[in-house]
Amino acid sequence: MTTSWPIALTVNGRSRTLEVLAHHTLLEVLRADLALTGTKECCLVGECGACTVLVDGESVDSCLMLAVEADGAAVTTVEGLADGDRLRPLQRSFLASGAAQCGFCIPGQLVSAEALLALTPHPTKAEVEEGLAGNLCRCAGYEQIIEAVLAAAAAELPT
Amino acid sequence: MRPFAYARPTNLADTVALLAADGPEARLLAGGTDLIIRLRDGSIRPRIVVDVKRIGELDGEIRQGDGTLTIGALTTMTAIAADERIRRDFTALAEGAAVVGAVQIRNRATLAGNISNASPAADTAPSLLVYGARVVVAGSAGPRRIAIDDWFVRSGVTALARDELVTAVELPIPAGRRGAVHVRRTRRRGHDLASVTLACAVHPDGVTRLAYGSLGPRPVLVGDDSGLLADGGASDHAKADLLDRLFADASPSPRSMRASPDYRLAMLRVLGLRAVRAAVGRLADVERAG
Amino acid sequence: MNGDGIGASPERVGGLARVTGRQVYVADVHLDDVLHARLVGVPCARARIVSVDASAALAVPGVRLVLTAADLPQPIPRFGPQFQDRPVLAVGEAKYHGEPVAAIAAETPDAAEAAAALVRIEYEELPAVVSISAALDPAAPLVQDPSLRDGDPLAATNVLRLHRYGWGDVDAATADVVVEGTYTFPMVTQFAIEPHGFMAAPDGDGIAIWSAIQHPSWLQRVIAGLLDLPLAKVRVFSPDPGGGFGGKQHAKYEPLVAFMALRAGRPVRLVLSLEETFQAVRRGASEIRVRSGFRHDGTLAFRDIEANYLIGAYADIADRTVAKGSYTANGPYVVPAARTVARSVLSHTTPSTAFRGFGNPQQIWAVESNMDEAAHALGIDPTELRLRNLAHRGDAFIPGDTPADGEWRTVVERAAEMIGWGSPLPPGRGRGLAVGLKSGPTTGLSYSTVRLLADGSVVVNAGTSDMGQGARTIFAQIAAQELGAPIEWVSVVMGDTAVVPYDQQTSASRSSVLMGNSILNACREIQAKLRAMAARAEGIDPSEIVVDRGEVRIGARVLPIRDVLIRGLGRLGGELIGIGEMRKEAEPEHPLGGTAAFFEFNCTAVEVDVDRETGDVVIARHVTVSDVGRALNPMQVRGQDEGAAVMGLGHTLMEQYIYDDAGRIRNLGAIDYRIPTSMDLPLLMESDIVENEDGPGPYGSKGMSEGALLCVAPAVAAAVREATGVVIRDLPLTPERVWRAIQDTAARPEAAARPDAEPGPRAAPG
Hints:
Largest sheet of chain C: 7 strands, mixed
Structural class of chain B: alpha+beta
Low-confidence stretches of chain B: none
Number of strands of chain B: 14
Shape of chain C: globular
Shape of chain B: globular
Number of helices of chain C: 18
Radius of gyration of chain C: 27 Å
Distance between the termini of chain B: 56 Å
Radius of gyration of chain B: 19 Å
Mean pLDDT of chain B: 96
Low-confidence stretches of chain C: 753-766
CATH topology of the largest domain in chain C: Aldehyde Oxidoreductase, domain 4
Mean pLDDT of chain C: 95
Largest sheet of chain B: 5 strands, antiparallel
Number of domains of chain C: 3
Helix content of chain B: 25-40%
Oligomer: heterotrimer
C-alpha cells in the first residue's frame, strides 16, 4: 500500500525526478520533499487558495492534486516567479501598492494573478475580483491586492 | 490521507478490467476536486484510486457532429464556460460551469466528475437536464447511453455500474434557438455551494423546461407544455401559480446547514420566476437578432 | 519608492520576502530530527474520559510517543493568562468539541495520522451547555470544577465573573423616551489564513519553542513556569504570524509540545488543521440588553446595559475581553447615569479569546443599534443624534478614566460628508451610520534596543509581533527618521527572546505607541551620545549641539549623523547603543487596572441595496474614518482600516458557528464557514483618517487597526432598516435572516419599524 511512484516533472523550470507516495498531495510534496515552502497550507479543501500553483500554466489548488498527477507536468510556484533577483511586474506592483500585510495568502494571490493576466492581460476590476475569488485574504480586505493587479496590468506602478 | 494504491491505465479496456476486479474498492479520479476532499476527510477509503486522465480514448475536447455536441469526459469547467458553442447554444450549461468553485477548481473539475459525484446541488445538473443530455459510458457490458434524467438516482448515486466510467456527455443540438439561463442561491457572492440551483430553457414553440437542484436527493426536471410560462404577456401571478404546481415535489433537507427548508422553497419560487423571465427575455433577444 | 520618513509610505519592511515566497512562517521552519504531532479528541461537546488505550497506536511503525494526561506531572499542569484553568491535556473530562485527550508524536505525518485513528478512547458523552440560557439555568451542569475556583462566590455557577461598571444613578434618572432592545452577536472565529503552528525542542538544559505567538515574552513566562525552568533557559522564536487578530495572543498547545519534546528528547512539531483552529479559538458570543433614556432633544439621560458573554470551557483571556468591552459599553457619549452589568458565562465550547475589538464589537452592536432605534423613536437624524451626545475633547466621559482624547465630531462629520449623508438615495437603497470606541492598552511595558552601527546603518531589536499590521516598517521608519539612515539601512530584529528585550505583548493596537515610543527613546539616547561625541570632537559643550532627526547642528553648521559617527568612533570602530523603555504603570484602584493610554474612535457609514425577495444585502458604499493622531505609514493605515472593515462585514453578513443538538460544531473548515472573498466587497470602499497629532505615540500617533471593525455591523443594520423598514437585532444578517425579517414584518405591518419605545415623561424603572 505504500509503494512509491516515480515522477518526473519540472518545477520552476528545473527538472526534478522523485519518488512519491500516491496519497501525498502535490502541496505536501512541494513543501516537504522539495523544500519549496513558499506555497502554503491552510484549508486543504480547495476553498482558500493559499496552496495555488500553476500546473502547465493553469492555476490549481495543489492541495487537491495528488503528486503523482503532476508527473510530466510543468509546475510553477511563487519561488519560480522572479528571475533571480529580478522581480515580476506583479511582485513589484504588490510591493508598491502595499498588497501584502501578513503575507500568508500572497504566494497564492501572486500565482493566481499571474494566471489571470496571462489569460486576460487587461482585466476589468470585476474580472480581477472574480479571478482572485479563490484566494482568501483575512488582512487586506482585498482592495490593495486588486489595485496591485490592475496596476501591473496597466504597466504603471503607483508613485 | 490514508494510503491507497494508484493506477493510471492508458486504455479503456484496462480501466474497465480494473474496475470489474476491484469493484467497490476502486474510485475514479478525474479532476479530484471532490474526490481528494473525501479522501482527506475519510468519508471514502478506497483500496485503489484509478486515474482516468491518461486513458487514450478519453479527452477534454468538445466536438460537434451529427446534431450532437459531444463533451469529452476530461473536459474541465473552465473549458466548458469558455466554449463559444456552449455559450451560444447551451448558455445555461456555460453559466452553471462558470460558478463551480473558483478559478482553481474550474481548471481541474470535469463535467464527468461533477455529474458522477451526483451532489444534489451540482451546478451543471439542472442545465444538463433541461437540455436533455445523454451520458455515454463504457463498461464490461460495452458502451451505452444513459439519458440524464435516468442518470441521477439520489445523492451520491448514479446509474453507473461498478465497472463503468463516463466517456462523454452528449448534448442534442437544437434545431432552432432557445432562451436559457442558470441561476442559483448562495450565502455570499463569492464562490459557494448552492442552496438552490436552477436552469430554465424556453423554446420558440412555447415549451419551457426547468430543472432544480438542492431541494431533494437528486436534481429534478419539470416542464410546461401549455405555453403559459413562455408567454411574455402572461401575468407573473399566473406563472407563479404554475411554478408552484411544477415544484410540488421539491423536498429540501431539514438538516441542511446552508438554508432552512422554508427559505429554500421560497427561493425556488423566486428564482423560478426570475429564471423564466430571463429565459423569455433571452429568447426574445435571439429572435429579434434574427 | 514611496519616500521614507514618518508620514510617507515606504514599501513594507519584510515585503520582499512576502512576495517571493521566502518569508518563513512557523510551519516553514524545518528541524532535522523533528517528530510530527497529531491531536486526538472525542466527537462530543462534553465527555467523561473513562480510559485511553494507546497500545495499538504505539505499535504503528514510526510512532515514538502517545501522551495523555496520565503521562504528565500530577496534578496536571494548568495554565491560562487569567486563571490557571486549562490543563495541558484534557483530564477526566473533555470539555469542548475538539479538546485534545491524547497527543501522538511520530517520525512522519502519515504515521501520526495512522496512530491517531488507533487510539482507543473509552468515553461517556455528558450533557453539555452551549448557549447562554442553558449555561445560566440553575440546573445546568458546571463547566468548571468548583474546587478550582476556591473562594469564588460564583463557583457553583457557570458565571466566571460578574462585572459592574457605571456612574450616576440610573434608577433615579428620568427620561422622555426610553428605547430598549436585546441584541445578539454570534460565535465567530479569527480564521487567520495561517493555521496555528507550534514546535518545541530540547535546547541544552533548557527548551526552545517556535510559535506564531503575538506575545513571545508572555509565552516564555508560561513555559518557564510550567516546566520549572528559569526564563533564561526558555527561548521563544516567534516568526511573523500569518494573521493573528488576537487568536495567537496566548498559549494554546505550546505547553503540550514542550512536554512532548522533553519526553521524546527530540523536536516535536504540531501544525493545526484549519478545522482545529476553529476548535481552538473564537470570539465571545453575546446577548446584550440595552435600555437607553433620552430627553426630547435627543440627549442621553441614562443607559442601562446587561450583557452576557458566552465564553468557552476555559477562560483564556475571555473574561478580560468582557471586562474591557463592557467598561466602555456606553460608548463615546456623555451620559449622566450609566450602568453596565456584564457576565462571562462558561460553556462547553471552544475557549473564546482575544479577537480584534476585544469584547467591544459585541457591545457596540447593541448600543449603536439601540441608538439608531432611538433616532427613529425621537424623530432625530441618526447622525445628528450621535453629534448631540458625543463627548468633546477633554470630557471625562468615563469618570475616573482618560478624558476624550480626540476631535470625534470631526470624524463623524467627515464620514457623513463622504457618504453624502442627507442627500437623496436611489429607491430601495438605505444608509446607516454608527460610531465605535475602544480603549487602548491600560498597562504596558516595551523595551527595545537600537544600535547605530559604524557606517550609520541601524539595527532595531523590538519584541513586537508583526502579524501584518506593519510594525516592522514603522519601527524602521522611526529609527530611519531619528538617526538619519535611509530605510534600507535599517534592520528590525524581532521574534527571538534570546536576542530581543522584553515586550509585554502585541495587542490593543498598542505597538505604535508603546514600542514606537520605546524605540524613539532609544534613538534619543543615541542622539545624546552623538551630542557628547560631537562635543568632544569640537571641544564644546554638548548643550551647544542639536541632534535632530538625521542631522547634527553645531551653530550654523549642519552635519549628517553618519559623518559625526564615523569621526567619533575613530580607529576602534564600534557602535552606539540606545536602550528604550516605555512603560504605562498599573493603577490598582482602577476597575481595569489602568486608564486608557488612548482611545480608538471610528465612524462607519454605509449604503446598502437589499433584494427584498431574497434578503441579499449588497454594500453599495462603505465609508470608514478613524482618528489616528498621526499616520506613521498611510498606506499601511489604509490597509489595516479597510481590512478591518471587510473583516467586520464578515460577522455582519455571513460568519457564524453552527452547532448540532449535541453541542458539536457542524461547520468546521472553509466550506461551510463563510468569510468575505474578493467578490463580496462593498462596491465602493472609501477610508479616510483624521490626524490631529494628538496621540501619545511618536509624532502624535495613536494606536489603530481595530477601530474600523468596531461599528460595521450596526451601520449596516441601520442601512438595512432604512432600505426595508425592518429592525434586526441578531447577527449575522444572512440573506435568510434578512428575508425572514422582511416576511415577518410584512405579515405584521403594525410591528414594522417600531422599536420598543415609550413616548412621554417617564421614570426609569428601578
